[in-house]
Amino acid sequence: MIDSTMNKPENSKITSEAPRSFLQLKLSIPNQQSVRIASGFAKSILILLLLFTLSCRTHRPIQSRLVPLDTPILKSKADRAMASMIHVQDYMDDIAISKEEQALLGDFYKTNNNRPVWLVDKRNAQELLEAIELAWSDGLTPDNYGFDVIKENLQKLDSPTYADTIMPAFYAQLDLRLTNAWMRYASDLQNGVIDPAKFSPGWKNIKQPMHLPELLTEALKKHQIRETLDALRPQNHQYNQMRYKLAELIEVQKNGGWPLPGFFETLEAVDSSTHIVAVRKLLQATGDLQSKDADSLSPVFDEKLEGSVVAFQKRHGLKPDGIIGKRTQDEMNKSVGYRIGQLIVNLERMRWLPHLHDKEYLVVNIPEFVLRTYKNNKPKDQMNVVVGNVKNHTPILLNTIKYIVFNPTWNVPPSIVRNEMVAKMKSDSGYLEKNQ
User: Fold this and answer.
1) Mean predicted confidence (pLDDT) in 84-111
2) Could you give the domains of the chain?
């Protein structure tokens, strides 16, 4: 499980709209040991989700099902909306949906007598549109929920140019798009976009059960479209921290990013170098060094700069020695776009896990070798732990702790004896004595 150690800014709110380009990332799904972000950010993080299987069905022409517009019942826009009978199969060629989504939509409209549910009173539709527009704040892409098409079509309903000529089929298709958008967004917020089991066998199928048709029906009835969606995302401390940090970094990106110091010889306290100035500017931009605490033009590696380097190292899982060596320089030269990509991946991974609302729990951040305990969704204690490596990785474990064994007896597993120890014993007769 990935744990963010970034601090949430006080009184922060996610309100700004993120340019779509910030979320157009090409990501390599990480394994359990580390998070790796692909270098090219030209494609969407959600590109894997576009590979839906479209159902190819033969259906009767839409126009043959329409009531003529001059029929008295269709004089108002509300009447035309209600005249739009919705049969999901009839629109499969127009809306890209998976077989699973098709089944959910069919169940939903069957319980609503195949009638529109969004367009007689458009308040719910407008609220959904506003919620989808902020999908970027969870590392999701508004376009994956048909944002532009829905926005354009809702505008047509209010346009004198189109409003009086729109056919019932238009209402039916738009209503279907709205329902599918809400269900897809709800599912992504609660269980994630990607099935982790497809990329890593260590992940079990831990999707939380959702009853989307019933949930949406209740949300529409109570006019709580956005509130219901907000309640579906993880409510824990780590997830909220990462959302706030994502919003912060997107603002940094919009303003030109932060300066990268480049690579140089190892530097430590009391050293003097022209590279120190670049390091100061970076750490001020990342919030690790307060502007009031240091002269940004000073080339001297002073005590306050050393403290900010330690803070930077802790946030990135490095040895907090205050020395700017190769590994620290590698992390210092990661762009804002790279960090945004890391947050997007970690937000997705957090959605894969069971939602821990008000329980006490502990989290092992495998790449950091750290265990943290939480109470009421706030960090309480932490300690270092031993985990595996890439070759012998630590599996993802999700379970309830029922008891703790102190000073347990540990025997070497046969696989370790066979794969790691036998060769060493053959080459060194004193191996076992040396490693008691």
Assistant:
1) 76
2) 20-242 (no CATH), 258-333 (1.10.101.10)
